[in-house]
Write a structure and sequence with these properties.
The chain is mostly beta strands. The chain has strands spanning 2-7, 12-16, 37-40, 43-47, 52-61, 75-81, 85-90, 98-101, 106-119, 129-139. A hairpin with a 7-residue loop joins β7 (85-90) and β8.
Length: 141
């Protein structure tokens, strides 16, 4: 299990193979404003709320598909990585970005869920949030 607290920029963060030639900007973002995650060649892009300043992301790597959680809506997608490692990262880069080794190069599933949103505003300031995300990854077979 890997955990990173990263800045959210433009309401987005990524889990992506930043060591290859693919780029998260090549992923097709849905027109609907309530999208949660998109994934494809290289990794995934996640959509946080407009008032989220940071995300605490826990990435779990499983050998097989994990049981479905009952807490809230989840999005399940597929992605591939040519290098077998990804970064939990701010889309504009941050010292908080975390390198995560996967079992190897190849195709994976991921299931993402936003589990909480904490108000982190100072007293008297407008509300801003740190979101808590759980992402489970397992090999595609």
């Amino acid at each position: 299990m890997y955990t990173a607290t990263i800045p959210v920029d433009h309401s987005q963060f990524t889990i992506f193979d930043l060591f290859g030639d693919d780029h998260y900007s090549n992923l097709e973002i849905p027109d609907a404003p309530d999208w949660l995650v998109v994934a494809g060649q290289g990794g995934a892009l996640f959509h946080a709320s407009d008032r989220a300043l940071s995300a605490e992301v826990t990435l779990e790597i499983w050998p097989d598909e994990p049981d479905e959680d009952s807490a809230g809506a989840a999005a399940t997608h597929a992605f591939s990585t040519p290098n077998g490692r990804v970064m939990i990262a701010c889309i504009t880069a941050s010292p908080s970005d975390k390198n995560v080794p996967l079992p190897g190069p190849g195709d994976y599933h991921l299931r993402a869920r936003r589990t909480a949103s904490r108000n982190i505003a100072e007293e008297g300031d407008p509300d801003v949030y740190q979101e808590v995300w759980n992402v489970k990854v397992w090999p595609r077979t």
